[in-house]
Design a protein that fits this description.
The structure holds two protein chains of two kinds. By secondary structure, chain A is an alpha+beta fold. Among the domains of chain A are: about 90 residues, no CATH class; about 120 residues, Chitinase A, domain 3. Chain A contains 15 helices and eight strands. A four-stranded antiparallel beta sheet of chain A has the order 5-4-7-6, with helices on both faces. In chain A, helix 4 packs across helix 5. By secondary structure, chain B is of the alpha+beta class. Chain B contains 13 helices and eight strands. In chain B, the strands form two sheets. In chain B, strands 3, 4, 5, 6 and 7 form a five-stranded antiparallel beta sheet that branches. Chain B has a two-stranded antiparallel ribbon with strand order 1-2. In chain B, helix 3 packs across helix 6 and helix 8 runs antiparallel to helix 9. Chain B is elongated. Chain B starts with a helix and ends in an 8-residue tail after the last helix. In chain B, about 30% of the residues are buried. At the A-B interface, helix 2, strand 2, helix 3, strand 8 and helix 15 of A face helix 1, strand 1, helix 2, helix 3 and strand 8 of B. Strand 8 of chain A pairs antiparallel with strand 1 of chain B, so a sheet runs across the interface.
């Protein structure tokens, strides 16, 4: 033995050094790894005071805190995925929104964007960045179904909404001024030019496009699109716009921005239904409508609560479903 | 030679280990199904685990610690019921909606799950403050005081002179104080009461009942204060001082940091660990 060691001492030395280096490498690679723990075959989430809280215990606690809303999120996705019809345009839009979100995260968070995006996507119940397209597809399908739901059930929703909110499509021309109570010579001259253009027979849209100081709406012939009685607009503008009937144009109205000429382009259901803002406002006014629509769609598909009547009751309370619905 | 290769393979396998991530048992068991889609325990667990579970872990850990330290006595139940009545009254008709929104089955469920743990924490913190009263008093210097605030130095000086001549502090405050906060009423203050730094600095040095001989100027603005210390020894208003110090979040945090360490708090899931590290690092075991 001793002779063998003496004969191969160099090989043995190299071997010892190699093994030592390997052991150190393994230690270095694993020293910061978080070790798991199992008790009776169950994963432990944390331990305190010698008490092990298993994933099953933690499931119950989380379920108490957020179980029903989490179930609803998964339930809604399952219902929409099975009931709503997708199409190429919608799929393409979902892809565009997913790519655009990725680009935004890249430009905002730099190299760490993927980790932040993963955290965000996990927060809405998906597990990987590539699920982003599925997430947007679901949102678009849900939005589409909700619109259809309002249109199909217009008898239920529109009368109250029109009466309380006075929805309409509105355009305006703005002559901006620093102090609208005291126009400067230049501001007054500009205002006179606008008045002359209108007096000369130019249409409201033409003048708005060419001369309005609100460049955002000017690009759309003066249209600010959808508004109703709860829109965030300066009070004088809101009041004037709501007091007009379809096709009417206001007197010049003074606000903190300057002087406005306002016209109501339409109050018709047909035109309003072309506007996303109209449906957003409906969803805000009827906050339970979307969830109740999902519930109705689910009933068509058949729901099985696996004998858990307590969960069924909790879900109905969450959805504000009354007996018989 | 073969043995060496096996050893090396084992070492390299170990090197490839990853952080622990927990899984609920019976992952594939359906909780609910709609049409042809089943929602499983595993999906639901993952979904809930992705909603930042660190706060739930800390709440649960605190509950376990408190259950070990404080018994749920009739006194605890009565205090929880008292808090419940106050909250219910403040919410008015919307109270039942609030309970549903936060997932409580009924009022008793809310008391059991939210208010009993809250009350236990109050009791535990009070006990902790009593145990550490001398040190915490030296750190937070609770004092019984009367304070008035003026915008002019002359007014503050005149107020001091009148009080020294025997005028009632509250009456003098009515005459000179420009603040609705400082009406000269007796109050218990300490370092964390949110008083101006100038007042805190003064109070930290006072060991006897006294009246400021000159106005205390707040250098961050142009306000002046007159402070009369009624009692500087917190042992003489012990119960009030304990209650007041117990309401300081930093003290209850300090208590829990100690208790988490004593209770050997350990986490075995990487996402939970990351969440706790980000929001509750103070409770993690010290390396």
């Amino acid at each position: 033995m001793l002779d063998t060691i003496k004969k191969h001492w160099f090989v043995i030395l190299v071997g010892i050094l190699f093994i030592s280096a390997s052991v150190y490498f393994a230690y270095d690679q694993t020293k910061d790894i978080l070790r798991g723990k199992k008790v009776d075959g169950k994963d432990v989430v944390f331990e305190i005071n010698g008490q092990n809280i298993t994933a099953d215990d933690f499931y119950e606690k989380l379920y108490d805190e957020m179980g029903i809303s989490a179930i609803y999120t998964l339930f809604e996705r399952a219902v929409i995925a099975q009931s709503a019809q997708s199409d190429k345009d919608l799929e393409s839009e979902a892809r565009i929104q997913a790519n655009s979100t990725i680009e935004n995260f890249k430009s905002y968070y730099g190299d760490s964007y993927e980790a932040v995006l993963l955290q965000a996507i996990r927060g809405v119940g998906y597990s990987k960045v590539s699920d982003l397209e599925t997430y947007f597809k679901h949102l678009l399908l849900l939005e589409k179904e909700t619109k259809n739901h309002f249109i199909t059930n217009s008898d239920t929703f529109y009368e109250e909404f029109f009466e309380k909110k006075s929805p309409r499509l509105v355009s305006h021309i703005l002559v901006a001024m620093d102090d609208p109570t005291k126009p400067t010579e230049q501001e007054q001259a500009r205002w006179d030019e606008v008045k002359e253009a209108l007096a000369s027979g130019k249409s409201f849209k033409e003048v708005a496009k060419e001369m309005s100081d609100d460049t955002g709406s000017a690009a759309n012939d003066g249209s600010i699109g959808y508004m109703d009685s709860t829109s965030s607009l300066v009070p004088e503008f809101l009041l004037a716009a709501l007091s007009l009937d379809e096709g009417e144009t206001s007197e010049w109205i003074r606000t903190t921005y300057g002087w406005h000429l306002i016209t109501v382009d339409s109050t018709s259901v047909e035109d309003l239904e072309k506007e996303d803002g109209f449906f957003s406002a409906l969803s805000t006014h009827f906050p339970n409508a979307q969830r109740q629509m999902v519930w109705a769609m689910a009933q068509e598909l058949n729901i099985d609560f696996k004998g858990n009547s307590e969960m069924e009751e909790q879900l109905k309370v969450f959805l504000k479903i009354t007996e018989g619905e | 030679m073969k043995k060496i290769l096996v050893l090396l393979t084992l070492i390299l396998t170990l090197a490839g280990c990853s952080d622990a991530s927990v899984r609920v048992s019976n992952r594939n068991e359906a909780v609910i199904s709609v049409g042809s889609t089943s929602i499983t325990r595993g999906q639901l667990f993952d979904m809930m685990m992705n909603q930042d579970p660190a706060g739930t872990v800390i709440t649960m850990a605190k509950e376990i610690i408190l259950a070990d330290k404080i018994e749920v006595t009739d006194e605890v139940r009565a205090k929880a019921r008292e808090t419940f009545e106050t909250i219910k009254e403040s919410f008015g008709e919307t109270f039942s909606d609030y309970l549903v929104q936060y997932g409580y089955k009924d009022e008793q469920d809310y008391i059991d799950k939210a208010l009993i743990p809250f009350t236990l924490q109050e009791f535990a913190t009070e006990a902790y403050v009593r145990e550490n009263f001398e040190r915490l008093s030296a750190e937070y210097y609770p004092r019984q005081v009367r304070i008035l605030q003026t915008t002019k130095e002359e007014d503050a000086k005149a107020a001091i002179a009148e009080i020294q001549d025997g005028a009632n502090f509250e009456d003098t405050a009515k005459k000179y104080s420009t603040s609705t906060t400082y009406k000269g009423e007796m109050e218990l203050v300490h370092k964390a009461s949110g008083k101006p730094t100038a007042i805190n600095t003064y109070l930290s040095t006072v060991r006897q009942p006294t009246l400021t001989s000159t106005p205390i100027k707040d250098d961050t603005n142009t306000l002046y204060y007159v402070v009369q210390v009624i009692e500087a020894n917190p042992e003489r208003f012990l119960d009030e001082a304990v209650k007041s110090l117990s309401a300081i979040a930093a003290i209850s945090d300090e208590m829990f940091v100690k208790y988490f360490e004593e209770a050997n708090f350990q986490i075995y899931d990487i996402d939970v660990y990351a969440g706790v590290k980000e929001s509750f690092a103070k409770f993690l075991p010290k390396k």
